[in-house]
Specification:
Elements lengths: L1 E5 L3 H13 L3 E5 L2 H10 L4 E4 L2 E2 L2 E2 H10 L5 E6 L4 H9 L4 E4 L4 H15 L7 E3 L2 E4 L4 E4 L2 E2 L4 H11 L5 E3 H9 L10 H16 L4 E6 L3 E6 L1
Parallel strand pairs: 1-2, 1-3, 3-6, 6-7
Antiparallel strand pairs: 4-5, 8-9, 9-10, 10-11, 12-14, 13-14
């Protein structure tokens, strides 16, 4: 799961970021309204942890903008103001949950997983394409019902593609989604090519009827064979 923490308390940003990374999440941060708005416009996230009081604007205004743009990220409002008005307004604007600060990290993680499960169609928390099934919560991948063991980055790549079947994915976008926005510091995308190659081998070896096909000059596309 890729998470954006929108919070201006730097100590809390660091604490939350470390805790979520320990749980295996990909974490990015924004400490004010403008930087959060920019990241949400450019990058995709599975979950946004959104503070109400932000330098440069209101978290509730950011939530309005996010929903108006059709952004499908789950949103959990995190606010020091244990205010009924904030909670009602935020949930009314489309937030998935509300967590008053201070909070325990274990509760935050549980809330994040809960809203992710609720957002899945028919409550079935698995992505399925062809004969391949991927369960984000458990890390399980199966091909025709048989388990396939993937390394973490291979799993993250497959998760990204299986949520976007038949869509062309630019290699730079894929790299940012799986490795985070620090990937901008990389000189090339050889690490992406290597991981995709390994994932292809494992899927082929397991008899998958889907394929991560190269699209010359653009990137990749997940298709049925």
């Amino acid at each position: 799961m890729k998470v954006l923490i929108v919070e201006d308390e730097l100590a809390l940003v660091e604490l939350t970021s470390k805790a979520l990374k320990k749980e295996g999440f990909i974490v990015e941060t924004a400490t004010d309204y403008p930087s959060a708005a920019e990241k949400l416009a450019v990058y995709s996230y599975d979950c946004v942890l959104l503070d109400v009081m932000l330098p440069g604007g209101s978290g509730l205004d950011l939530l309005r903008r996010l929903k108006a743009d059709g952004n499908r990220a789950n949103v959990i409002i995190t606010s020091a103001k244990d205010s009924l008005d904030d909670k009602v307004t935020g949930l009314g604007l489309g937030a998935d949950d509300y967590l008053a600060k201070p909070f325990h990290m274990a509760e935050l993680v549980a809330r994040m997983r809960s809203v992710a499960r609720r957002s899945m169609n028919a409550g079935d928390f698995a992505f399925v394409f062809g004969n391949v099934s991927l369960e984000p919560d458990t890390g399980r991948v199966t091909v025709a019902g048989q388990d396939v063991l993937l390394l973490k980055k291979e799993f993250d790549i497959l998760k990204y593609f299986i949520q976007r079947p038949e869509h062309i994915v630019d290699k730079a976008v894929l790299a940012e989604a799986v490795w985070g926005d620090h990937v901008d510091q990389a000189d090339d995308f050889q690490f992406v090519y290597a991981q995709v190659k390994n994932l292809r081998k494992k899927l082929d070896g397991a008899g998958a009827d889907i394929e991560i096909r190269s699209v010359y000059g653009f990137g990749y596309k997940l298709i049925n064979r």
